[in-house]
Amino acid sequence: MKFQKRRLSFFHLTAVMMLILTAFSAYANDIVFVINKDVKTDKVTREELRDMFLGNISVWPDQQKVNFVTLGDPETHKTFVRAYIRKTESQFQAWWKRRLFTGTGKVPLKFKSEQDVIDYVARTEGGLGYVSSKAAIGGTVKILTVTDN
Amino acid sequence: MRKIILIFTGLSLIAGFAYAGDEGKVDIHGFISQGYLKTDHNNYMAETEDGSFQFNELGLNFGTDLTDKLRLGLQFFARDLGTDGNDKLVLDWVVADYRWRDFLGFRVGRIKLPAGYYYAIRDFDMLRTDVFVPQCVYPEILRDTFSFIKGISLYGNMIGPWGHLSYDYLTGRANLSLDTGLASAQEDFWSYYGLKLTDMTSSQSHSFDCKWETPLPGLILGGTAYYHKDFYLEGTLSGPVSDILKLTYLRTYMDFKGYFLMLRYILGDVAFTAELNQNRIESVIDADRSYDDPGYLKAEALTSQGWYMALSYRFNSFFEAEYMYSVFYPDKTNKHGKDRYSHTDLNDVFKSVGVLKQFYGNDFEAWKKTSTFSFRFDINEYWLFKLEAAYNDGFGEYTSADNRDHSDLKRYWWLYAAKVTYNF
Q: Which residue among A149, B86, B207, B342 is buried most deeply as judged by most CB within 10 Å?
């Protein structure tokens, strides 16, 4: 009986984990990362991407500075910080304001529209941004693939 | 102050229009806050028994990237809290930051001291749920002294399968002057000797801070070790006790040694934070009959200890709440208040001028145990409002400067705080 209970708990735990992962994957699929065409990388891991947006990794493998920007659209931004940064919007904001007001960094630029993000990334060395999967990306930037490992 | 607010308003409007796309130019940011404090008994940090609006802060921040690796920044700051600050505008920090690699960067200038989780950010309301940072670990009298170090910093971060490690070593001179809270605390402690400080200088300070983001998502462990060496204080004595002892001069050398340990766990909208601080002050006190005469010489050491645990939950983008329990012992060797400060050789002198009771204080001044309930309302990205209620058992503090007569102190008391902040 005890064994059955344990199996049941394990089953429940696995199911919950699967649901969470599926939910995050669904979120994650709604986001597309765009980079400047001159960046000599097409692929980063999820952890590397997180560290770039938190300022822990400041250069691409080809030594160009990572110039990342965020999107003002609340829904896409919220999805992005939850799925890729593992923070809430307020935690992400506090992370950068902490750096700003203690003299250890600056807050990332924020653009109102997806087209503004794409235009900035296209014209900026080492540019990195994100847009929703519905955005018309065009050929001025390239898409960055994010892998789990 | 009026001029400062006008400049602040102008700059916030300019920064408001510069929504994005101004890369390469000077970034301007800032904040302004106004609070209100009220206690049912005991004055705390200000004349709070009657309610006090002497509780505000203002900061203006400028920064620019000179190259991909070099950033320059500075921040002006003004505050008022009871008798401290008085809205005097000071240079909070000014830093040239050269990030050579991610694992090693250099900062020079007047650098914010990253001690514990809160020291570097205690002036910035928008970065926490509570109105007051936990006083058990971040006592107000050390706020100015632990605010920055004038010197250099080596910092960096490393990433691996074991998680993420960030570190920061600072060395230089700490902030010590007659304007700091430590000065008023010393004058308060020596009030029966009538101490009037005339000079305070600092020598060498060292601090090492590190934070480890463990492989378990959301779990961060951290620690800070610090050593402020040879703080020098000098002043004249003219009071009831010093008159009897015929003392006219005081010189004190102080060393501050201590550490912080921190654990923080974030799971979605829930955050749990716990910290422990131990601070040891070693003093050599030389009270003389004249400047050149080595008179009454005494070595003293005081080790204080404080810790807290806080649990916060963000309900939605508008509302966050936190509960915190904190404990502070000004003298960790005497947590129950019996026989505090055993200056037995001076008891007769204190008794003869009628200040024995005032000098020793009450038993409950040996501890402070506080339950704090904080509520934060984010009206929008720029405005926020906070309410806080703290129930206290005891009045354990480094100083009781706002309560001259110890016999009026009450063991159990409430502190209420409200604060509104604008930042951009």
A: B207
Query: How sure is the predictor about B20, in pLDDT bands with cuts at 50, 70 and 90?
Result: very low
Predicted confidence (pLDDT) per residue in B204-257, tens digit: 999 999 999 999 999 999 999 999 998 999 999 888 878 877 788 888 899 999
Secondary structure of residue A138 in the 3-state scheme: coil
**Mean pLDDT, residues B32-40 taken together:** 96
Q: Is residue A39 part of a domain?
A: yes
Mutate to test the interface with B, among A101, A110, A148 (most CBs of B within 10 A): A101
Q: Which domain CATH number covers A141?
A: 3.40.190.10
List, in order, residues 6 or more apart from B146 with CB less than 8 Å away.
B113, B115, B119, B174, B175
Model pLDDT for residues B133-174, shown as the tens digit of each residue? 999 999 888 888 889 999 999 999 999 999 999 999 999 999
**What domain range is A103 assigned to?**
31-147
H helix intervals, chain A: 2-29, 46-53, 74-80, 89-101, 114-123
**ipTM of this predicted complex?**
0.86
Mean pLDDT calculated for residue range A83-107:
94
Q: Which domains does chain B have, with CATH numbers?
A: 2-15+26-423 (2.40.160.10)
Contact in structure between B359 and B350 (CB atoms under 8 Å): yes
Sorting pLDDT into bands at 50, 70 and 90, what band is A24? very low
CA angle, B191 then B195 then B200, to 5°: 125
A8 touches chain B (CB under 8 A): no
Query: Residues near B300 by Cβ (< 8 Å), separated by ≥ 6?
Result: B282, B283, B285
CB pairs under 8 A between A and B: 93
Interface of A with B in 11-40 (CB under 8 A): none
Residue A55 inside a domain? The answer is: yes
Cα→Cα distances B11→A97, A109, A111, B29, B126, Å: 18, 18, 21, 8, 19
Say which residue the tokens 């649901």 belong to.
Answer: A19
**Least CA distance to B380: which residue of chain A?**
A90
Number of domains in chain A: 1
